[in-house]
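Input/output pair, single chain:
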Amino acid sequence: MARCFREHAATGLTILLTSANLAAILPFPDIDPVAVSLGPISVHWYGLAYVAGILLGWFYARRLVDNGKLWLSDTAPMTRQHLDDFILWVAFGIVLGGRIGYILFYDLDPVLANPIRAIEVWNGGMSFHGGLIGTTIAMILFARRNQIPAWSLFDIVAAVAPIGLFFGRIANFINGELWGRVSDVPWAMVFCSPHVIAAHNGVCPAGPDPRHPSQLYEAGIEGIILFLVLFILTRWALALKKPGTVSGIFVIGYAFSRIFVEFFRQPDEQLGYLLGTNWLTMGMVLSLPMVAIGLWAVIRARQAAARQMA
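Output:
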């Protein structure tokens, strides 16, 4: 009888713990990806995230330019007008680079088989690494055309970039995309909602299992934490006086943040894990070279500053 009691108690405890785990799962908010509909025109949260990131970044960049004490010789190497003119350049760099990068890094074979897929953004969105390359090209061309120091322009864009990253990851979360790996942590979420299912022809692409809300991890680390680190560097450490330092730290910080979150994020379905592993992803592979590039930028900035003082 004692044995029977123990077995029933163990079964009851298992059911109780399972029920507790299910109750602990956070509900995924059912937010319509379309923020505003005006007749046939639909404005998506994803598009608004890009607009908000660019505009708030532009506003913060103007504040940095206005504060001469942050810059070498107490004078900013560019003006507000430069930043106003640069908005269109950076917008094209982010959008074109991000889309082309996604196709090249994540979706090349399907696009080669069906070229029209290149403009079907609902089958896959944007790549940060592609957007970074596109923005870098835009910055180099703009700096040369306007005869301003490219490294200082890099630093300003790097200082404000986490703002855009934050809004972009929040938009990913609202869309129920780029979800995390299956997990039993108390804050895991089932990324199925009526709007997500409707957007995928009645299917929940993430499945019924609770998963890490990795979009929120990225918003917090790549967005909030990285912004605060760069804010301290620019405001208190006066890193803008050594052109290249802020952009180098940003690249390093993003790379480590992305590599860390990739351990919780589900890899893209069409690629999966790389090299036969169950952990290596394309996001990690693309981020690793960024560490070396960022370190080179920081070292170069320190050496340039030392030569200038000599």
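Confidence is low (pLDDT under 50) at residues 1-24. The longest helix spans residues 282-309.
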